[in-house]
Structure formats: C-alpha cells, structure tokens
Amino acid sequence: MTDALNTIDYGERGRVRIVEDSEALARAAAEFVIDSAREAVDRKGCATIVLSGGSTPKQMGRLLAQDGYQERISWDKVHFFWGDERWVPLESPDSNAGEAKRAFLDHVGVPSANVHPFDVSSISPAQAATRYESLVRSITEPNAGIPAFDLILLGMGDDGHTASLFPGTDAVHEKDRLVISHYVPAVNADRLTMTPPLLNAGRNVAFLAAGSGKADRLAEVLEGPVNIDRLPAQAIRPAGGPTWIVDRAAAASLAKQTG
C-alpha cells in the first residue's frame, strides 16, 4: 500500500499497515476505498461502502473529492452507508452522514439515491434502526444470509469502542439484529449502530487509527487478552481478519512494531 512503512500480521485479529502520519493515513485509506470500489464494480456492477465518523475519514473524504482521486471511482455505481450515527439532524456538525456529505459526497457526483443516512427525522431511534436494517438487506448482497458490504471503514475510540459499540453495553453481544438503537451511558445519548454480525460479514473491513492517544489501546486490542466487554473493537473479526491502517504514533506501543 502507498506510504506503508511496515506491515504486521496478527492473524484473525488483523493485518496492521503502519504509515508515517495522519496525512499518509488519509492517502492510504483513500486508496483502499478506490481499490475496493473498483473491484466490486468490476465484479458485480456496483459497490456498497460503509463510512465512519471521525477526523481521519474527513481527511480521506477531502482527498477523494480532489483531482487525481475523484476520477478513479465510478461514483454513480457506489452506495454509501454509515456504521453508526448520533441522534442528531444531518445539518448538525455531530452527524457522521452530514459531515461526509459536506466533505465530499456532495462534490463528487454521487446520486442522492445512492446515499443512505439513518432516518433521524420523525421516527423513534428503535424505528430508525429497524428501517435501516431493512434498507441494508434490500440493497446489499447477502453472504450466508447476512448482507455483505464490499468495504466497511471503522474507527476506534480511546476507550476501545468502535462504531457505537461501547464498553460494557449489551450491543457488543448482539447476535440476531443487524442494526440497533441503544442508550450509551458513557456519552449520555441514544446511538444507532451496526452490530458485530453485520460488521463481521463485510468483504473488506478496515480500521483507521491515528495519534498517540490510540497507542496503548491499540496494543491491548491486538496483543492483549480478548475481552470484548472492555474492548469492543476485539469483537470485529471478519473472515481473514480486518485490516488496520494506523500511523506511526498509534503503532508506537505495539510489541511487534519493528519499523
């Protein structure tokens, strides 16, 4: 991968690709999106991609809207979803979907019909989750009965959460529902989130992590004991393991780090 300094294999916990800094991480993530989208479009005529919130995806999105990147994706053949969402309107700066739309989706020619944010308008969070699961099932090809996105991008919080699967919540153990709403005490708010069965069905699943604040937690997730109640990111183990694209600062505490 472009800008890679080092690659570490953690088996089912994933493959870690270390890049220099957050800018290199955004470039690597953009290339990952381009490669995944093009492979899916070539294979079946369209691509389904799940985006996450956070600063790194914003940087990535801005790159994808620039010359040299934008023309490399058939945007009219890509459908975009979100792995989780806050219960706020699209206009809010706290909306994952709203920020992605403003950063790049509104600028690259994606048809509005291909952009699928959660409905946070006039229904309840529980209804929104149920409708989103139905939408996902209606658009995304199943794999063993579970919709399989072509690419799922995830982040990891300093506490080890991913999507809106937070430490100590029942959501990390969900087996049946693919999308849920739940109250998260740590943030004192309702959250909408895809669950482990859906996230683990993705054909490509990539975590993006940058900064020294992630270093110790990343080492725990990859090299420590498995405890998904404390480290929900450990619950994400798609077939073949996820890909982790991290910068040098985030990788600093890895025992296997040799670069």
Question: Can you walk through the features of this model?
Answer:
The protein is of the alpha/beta class. It has a single domain, classed as 3-Layer(aba) Sandwich (Rossmann fold), CATH 3.40.50.1360. The chain contains six helices and twelve strands. A seven-stranded mixed sheet has the order 1-2-12-11-8-3-4, with helices on one face. It has a three-stranded antiparallel sheet with strand order 5-10-9. A hairpin with a 5-residue loop joins strand 1 and strand 2. Helix 1 packs across helix 2. The chain is globular. 47% of the residues are buried.
Q: How is this fold's topology laid out?
A:
Layout: E1 6-9, E2 15-19, H1 22-44, E3 47-51, H2 55-64, E4 78-82, E5 84-86, H3 96-103, H4 125-139, E6 142-143, E7 146-147, E8 151-155, E9 179-184, E10 189-194, H5 196-199, E11 205-209, H6 215-223, E12 243-247
Parallel strand pairs: 2-12, 3-4, 3-8, 8-11, 11-12
Antiparallel strand pairs: 1-2, 5-10, 6-7, 9-10
